[in-house]
Specification:
This is Mevalonate kinase. It is found in: Cytoplasm. It comes from Halarchaeum rubridurum. It is an enzyme of class 2 (transferase). The chain has nine helices and twelve strands. It is α+β, with helices and mostly antiparallel strands. The chain has two domains: 144 residues, Ribosomal Protein S5, domain 2, CATH 3.30.230.10; 132 residues, Alpha-Beta Plaits, CATH 3.30.70.890. It has a four-stranded mixed beta sheet with strand order 3-6-4-5. A hairpin with a 7-residue loop joins β10 and β11. α1 crosses α3, α2 packs across α3 and α5 packs across α6. The longest helix has 23 residues. It is globular and about 60 Å long. The protein starts with a strand and ends in a 10-residue tail after the last strand. It binds (R)-mevalonate.
Length: 317
């Protein structure tokens, strides 16, 4: 989940994502043949199972939604990079995915699944990758699936845990106090690739959009100071501005604006959309219970919950 800097990070500005205690669990078992079988449950979709192997034209999917296709793209690439890491190009794998992170909603679900899948598959094939190596491979997977449009932010954050700072290829972990995160989810999902392409087009057409992207970078640098000082009031103010700048880039939505305003009116120090936008989640900072209550009473909000910072990234269970 992004405290600051989504979208602008794609153009080399810094971003600060934070890992929260919602996890994707991926179990991988080697098969006796060269086929791959993927089952997923709880991806806030009906569960699905796909089985296919080399030479099949298309997988046989019981729930053919664009979200499932997108998820399959990520899993396929993750298995390919794990086989490559283990130098086992023909290894057949059974993959089971469970996740309590809604898909395509701005909480980094694809990064969490990809990171866990690479780690589990490489381990099954006999290679223990360091979290940094998993992060780098996961970034390459996201980039391939999102047609070259991805930053290292989500994948590095998922692999390392805690709060991180990403600027281009410079990725670091940050010492961070536990912040009082509240998440509001409108129950919908977005297409990250499309939203990123929309910002790119706006930025190519208008100087103001280019300036907006660099203003987000300035704001993130101020946010890092506030984070270091644990200044929740200042973090909140900057989150409000970050939301406004993202809205100027065309990536907010009525439901996201409604949830942001509900959280603010409920007493949050600040609130913003998180991730690619277009629908999905907002994040607010609130020490009390007001923002969560206000969100739960907002028709646009399907689910609201407090989110703890997850200090641990990818792990074997
Ligand atoms: C999407 O989770 C975050 C974006 O900044 C894209 C990216 O960083 O890859 C919109």
């Amino acid at each position: 989940m992004y405290l600051f800097g989504e979208h602008a990070v794609v153009y080399g500005e810094p971003a600060v994502p934070c890992a929260i205690e919602r996890r994707a669990t991926v179990t991988v078992a080697e098969r006796g043949d060269d086929r791959q079988r993927v089952s997923a449950a709880d991806l806030t979709l009906d569960g699905f199972t796909v089985e296919y192997g080399a030479g099949d034209d298309a997988p046989d999917v019981d729930v053919p939604t664009p979200l499932v296709e997108a998820a399959m793209g990520y899993v396929d690439e993750a298995m390919a990079t794990a086989r490559d890491a283990a130098d086992r190009p023909d290894a057949g794998l059974d993959v089971t995915i469970e996740s309590d992170i809604p898909l395509g909603a701005g909480l980094g679900s694809s990064a969490a699944v990809v990171v866990a899948a690479i780690d589990a598959a490489a381990r099954e094939l006999g290679v223990d990758l360091a979290p940094e190596a998993v992060a780098e491979r996961a970034y390459e997977v996201e980039k391939a699936v999102q047609s070259g449009e991805a930053s290292r932010a989500d994948t590095f954050c998922s692999a390392m845990g805690g709060a991180v700072r990403v600027e281009g290829s410079d990725c670091r972990t940050l010492a961070t106090p536990d912040l009082p995160f509240v998440v509001g989810y409108d129950g919908t999902s977005h297409d990250t690739g499309e939203l990123v392409a929309g910002v790119r087009a706006l930025r190519e057409e208008y100087d103001f959009a280019r300036d907006t992207v660099s203003s987000i970078g300035d704001l993130v640098r101020r946010g890092e100071d506030a984070l270091r000082e644990g200044d929740v009031a200042e973090l909140g103010r900057l989150m409000d501005v970050n939301h406004g700048l993202l809205a100027a880039l065309g990536v907010s939505a009525r439901s996201l604006d409604e949830m942001v305003w509900a959280a603010r009116e409920g007493g949050a120090a600040g609130a913003k959309l998180t991730g690619a936008g277009g629908g999905g989640c907002i994040v607010a900072l609130d020490d009390g219970t007001g923002a969560e209550t206000a969100l739960s009473l907002t028709p646009a909000c399907d689910e609201s919950f407090r989110a703890e910072l997850a200090t641990e990234g990818v792990r074997a269970e």
